[in-house]
Amino acid sequence: MNATPNPLHTALSLAASGVPVLPLRRGKVPFGNCTTCADNACGGRPNMKVPGPCRCPAPCHGWAAATTDPAVIVSPPWAAAWRQAVCVAYHPGGAGLTVVDLDDADAITWARTTLPATRTVPTTRGEHWIYRGAMASRNTVRPGVDIKSTMAYARWLGPGTGALAALPDAVRALAVKPSPAPRAPQTLPEPLRGGQGECPHRTPAFLERGVAMAVQRITEASSAVHATVYRTFLAVLSTHGRCGCLTDTHVTRLFTAAQAKGETPRHCTDAWTNARTALGM
């Protein structure tokens, strides 16, 4: 594995240039959650796809720990991790970048004949092609090719060579999952108790207040926008999603607020779908 000679020095240098960093231990994986966050007791989602609601000072929750704050990077919990770290990772999406991770010679050949030239960084087995622009991450979009951007981390292996090119549609298209078959419209099997035949969530004031508060929560997010959008979608769906009261107009308001904070339409769709899946909907 490509070890970083001085992980802390490299991390501080990258953070100063606006690249969110985190330490990696042997095996090129993030450090495990602290005792408070162990087994996602703080509310973190499985597989560290979404950070928990806590503000843990340790490098917890994988990619979500990545930071550009030098005070955090040199704090005692992080200092202990840097002493054991073998290399530095960064959150490409947090830096407005996308990494096309090419694992072998065949993947590199495919990229050279398919994708526009951009900055390249040699890896142990292949190359990282880095583009300017963030998108949803996805593993194994084709043999030997992963996409690392939002909600993912990549090893820092040096600045690379070549000029950064804008993220092309050809790369964005690789992460688009096939659309699932249309679902049958939701129907209420019977009137809800106490609702006199109507869903109580259909009360205009209750629903409007809930959606307005959700839009405000997203709009006021000053950091961790991805996580805020997901948690807000989760809260809205848990309250209003099972009774059929949400309309396309409500969802559009939520998506518009998220996109105003820099989220892509694709990320909004993924966050909404993931929230529905987490709730078993």
Describe this structure in words.
The chain has 281 residues and is α+β, with helices and mostly antiparallel strands. It has helices at residues 7-16, 70-73, 76-84, 105-114, 169-174, 204-219, 225-240, 248-260, 265-278; strands spanning 21-25, 29-30, 87-90, 97-102, 119-122, 127-132, 138-142, 145-148, 154-155, 165-166. The longest helix has 16 residues, at 204-219. The chain is globular. It is built from 9 helices and 10 strands.
Task: Tell how many strands the DSSP assignment holds.
Answer: 10
> Rough shape?
globular
Biggest sheet descriptor: 6 strands, mixed
Contiguous low-pLDDT stretches (5 residues minimum) are: 45-50, 183-198
- Share of helix, binned: 25-40%
As a percent range, the share of strand residues is 5-15%
Structural Rg: 21 Å
